[in-house]
Design brief:
Layout lengths: L3 H16 L11 E7 L2 E5 L13 E5 L1 H7 L9 H7 L13 H7 L7 E5 L2 H7 L4 H6 L4 H7 L4 E3 L6 H18 L5 E4 L3 E6 L2 H23 L8 H8 L2 H12 L1
Parallel strand pairs: 5-6
Antiparallel strand pairs: 1-2, 1-4, 2-3, 4-7, 6-7
Helix pairs in contact: 1-9, 2-4, 4-8, 5-9, 7-9
Length: 253
């Protein structure tokens, strides 16, 4: 586990790198989070911008009350703001993003220490089209498999907040049971992209590769495709040790 200062540094670097790429997020879009310990994490404050995020715009939050809400306590929509405010470690800190709810759940998964959420242009072109399911379930080239996973979780559109967080939790659980592995990417129809990782650089690499994959997908459609990789090739590449070694080397630079 990183120290608090290390987590802050890594989150700010991740935020600035993805927030200054216009393909990823503009204005107040998107958010980042990082685990501090078993009960606390840092999350981007509501209304702040990824590209110019500052340390005081990262809010430390207690995860337990949020996870309790997700497990079926009777929290109404109009109580979510109170939940977010009372979950803050420092009561004078800024209000956490409403998407803190799904960050809390994802950060309790094994090996997930960082989460990035963006609204990439090409990814959303696909997620606002009838071909979102095809993009989520199939792969076009090897690096997409290595960095984005052999398949993505696809979440039908629901409003941000408790309902979205609960839907993400249910579909990720279903994915884990079905695939016997954890997802690297979650695609939100008519909304955006979530990337999970052990490191901030891993999250950045996944976000960037997913956006590239969407550009390839859209271009392949225009050229009469796409032609997707056969499932046996996807499974083989997903298990190749040399591909994962190369991934680790890139992410460590």
């Amino acid at each position: 586990m990183n120290s608090v200062n290390e987590t802050i540094e890594k989150l700010l670097e991740l935020s600035h790198r993805i927030g200054t790429t216009e393909q990823m997020a503009i204005l107040g879009e998107g958010n980042v989070s990082g685990q501090l310990n078993a009960d606390q994490f840092l999350i981007k404050a509501s209304g702040t911008e990824l590209g110019s995020l500052t340390e005081n715009q990262l809010v430390a939050v207690h995860s337990k009350p949020i996870l309790k809400a997700l497990k079926g306590s009777n929290v109404e929509d109009d109580e979510i703001e109170d939940l977010l405010l009372t979950s803050r470690v420092d009561s004078t800190a800024l209000k956490p993003s409403v998407e803190t709810l799904f960050h809390a759940w994802l950060l309790q998964l094994p090996h997930v220490l960082f989460v990035g959420h963006t609204h990439p242009v090409c990814v959303n072109q696909v997620l606002c089209s009838p071909r979102a399911k095809e993009f989520a379930e199939h792969r076009l080239f090897p690096d997409q498999i290595v960095y984005c996973g052999a398949e993505s979780v696809l979440v039908p559109y629901v409003d941000p907040g408790l309902v979205l967080a609960t839907r993400i939790a249910d579909l990720v659980d279903d994915f884990i049971k079905r695939k016997k592995t954890f997802p690297k990417t979650i695609l939100l129809e008519n909304h955006g992209l979530i990337a999970l990782g052990t490191t901030a650089k891993q999250v950045e690499a996944t976000l960037r590769m997913t956006e590239k994959s969407a550009r390839v997908f859209v271009g392949a459609i225009a050229a009469g495709g796409p032609i997707v990789l056969p499932q046996e090739q996807v499974d083989r590449i997903a298990s190749r040790s040399d591909e994962h070694y190369r991934q680790r080397m890139i992410e460590s630079n």
